[in-house]
Amino acid sequence: MLLVPIYSESEQTQISASKFLLPFEGKLSCQNRWVMMTDLIPWQEFEDEYASLFSEKMGAPAKLFRMALGVLIIKDKLRISYRETVKQIKENPYLQ
């Protein structure tokens, strides 16, 4: 039997760049390349198709499509390893 990860979009949330608050009441710049890139991708359309590939009852929970694709885009654009990608995401609010 093939085990397919569980997918539950309702348990996972993404906030928009405009609502992302930085420490000391700062906000992300709408002119940042990463923020502008998020507006180019039809996230919900892809999320719906991605979610249809997973079970709602079996397996470990899957990550949101936005997170999965975002990591790949960051890794590719910066030409860095997966480990370095994780470090960059942890340190840079624009990548989060």
Describe the structure.
- This protein has 96 residues and is mostly helical.
- It has a domain at 28-53 and 61-96.
- Helix content is 41%, strand content 4%.
- The protein has helices at residues 33-38, 43-51, 65-78, 82-91, and strands spanning 21-22, 26-27.
- The protein has a two-stranded antiparallel ribbon with strand order 1-2.
- The radius of gyration is 15 Å and the shape is globular.
Task: Look at the structure and give the mean pLDDT.
Answer: 84
Largest sheet: 2 strands, antiparallel
Number of helices: 4
Spatial sequence of strands, sheet with the most strands:
1-2
Contiguous low-pLDDT stretches (5 residues minimum) are none
SS-based class: mainly alpha
CA-CA gap between termini? 36 Å
Q: Sketch the topology as an H/E string, one letter per element.
A: EEHHHH
Give the strand tally: 2
* Helicity range: 40-55%
Shape: globular
Integer-rounded radius of gyration:
15 Å
Strand content: under 5%
Keywords:
96 residues; mainly alpha; two-stranded antiparallel sheet; 4 helices; 41% helix; 4% strand
Write the layout of secondary structure elements.
Layout: E1 21-22, E2 26-27, H1 33-38, H2 43-51, H3 65-78, H4 82-91
Antiparallel strand pairs: 1-2
Brief rundown of the structure:
The protein is mainly alpha-helical and 96 residues long. It is 41% helix and 4% strand.
